[in-house]
Amino acid sequence: MTAGIKVKAVSLRAVFFFNYQILPGTLNSMFDEPLAINISEESCPVTAVISHVVRAGREQGYEAWFHGIAADARKFKGHLGVSTIRPQDHAHPEYVVILKFDCYNNLKTWLESDIRREWIERLQPLIEKPEDIQTLTGLETWFTLSNKPMMSPPPRYKMALVSWLGVFFTLPQLNRLLVPLLSGLPVLLNQLISTGLGVALLTYVIMPRLTQLFRKWLYPSPKK
């Protein structure tokens, strides 16, 4: 018998458009029931954050299980990567699996597949309670703390303000750096390179640091 599965879905319809051009003198990116996830942008990359609380003494078995299911997940269309965060507190061994797909439909195909269903059945003797799944798409993935991956995203206005701050400080500096390098390129290629670098900087450098800097405001401690 397959244990029930809790699915916590978070949908954010926030889209950031980098519509600028770098030119001199101007400022120019599962299983028994259908998953109830409301994602209008089905072509957007999506991340599933899955929590497993492992029974004491079954950690080695869980590690072997994870490597097996990860190998099968990589065979599915749209798979972009999978990793796990191992518990630091062995008295409460909670493993967090971070699974990425290129779009929601491909993620859903994997989550509802017979192959994964079989793996989840094998998992039941190893865990204390049903797995918890949270899906992230869009700007939410900019606002995750590495040591607290299961937290719900901040309010939209806070994400918008911090995103604006990141763009405000990133684009002018990027403009100054790239103008002498890209001024001789066609406009379309210029935009392709500059927006790509802008999105990469924001995703991997700027936003993680801003999230840490404003973490107390983004994730205030609950009032007692």
Describe this structure in words.
This protein is of the alpha+beta class and 224 residues long. It folds into two domains: 138 residues, 2-Layer Sandwich (Alpha-Beta Plaits), CATH 3.30.70; 63 residues, no CATH class. It is 41% helix and 15% strand. It is built from six helices and five strands; from the N terminus they run E-E-H-E-E-H-H-E-H-H-H. It has a five-stranded mixed sheet. Helix 1 runs antiparallel to helix 3 and helix 4 packs across helix 5. It is globular. The N terminus is likely disordered.
Keywords:
224 residues, alpha+beta, Alpha-Beta Plaits, 2 domains, five-stranded mixed β-sheet, 5 strands, 41% helix, 15% strand, globular
Summarize the structure.
The protein has 224 residues and is an alpha+beta fold.
Fold topology:
Layout: E1 6-9, E2 46-53, H1 59-73, E3 79-85, E4 94-101, H2 104-111, H3 114-123, E5 132-137, H4 156-182, H5 187-213, H6 215-218
Parallel strand pairs: 1-5
Antiparallel strand pairs: 2-4, 2-5, 3-4
Helix pairs in contact: 1-3, 4-5
Number of helices: 6
Mean pLDDT equals: 75
What name is given to the CATH topology of the largest domain?
Answer: Alpha-Beta Plaits
Tally of extended strands?
5
For the largest beta-sheet, the strand count, sense and barrel status come to:
5 strands, mixed
Structural domains: how many: 2
CATH architecture of the largest domain: 2-Layer Sandwich
Strand order of the largest sheet: 1-5-2-4-3
Helical fraction equals: 40-55%
What structural class do you assign from the helix and strand content?
alpha+beta
Shape: globular
What is the gyration radius calculated from CA atoms? Answer: 20 Å
- Element order, helices and strands? EEHEEHHEHHH
The CATH class of the largest domain, by name, is Alpha Beta
Terminal CA distance: 40 Å
Poorly predicted regions are: 1-41
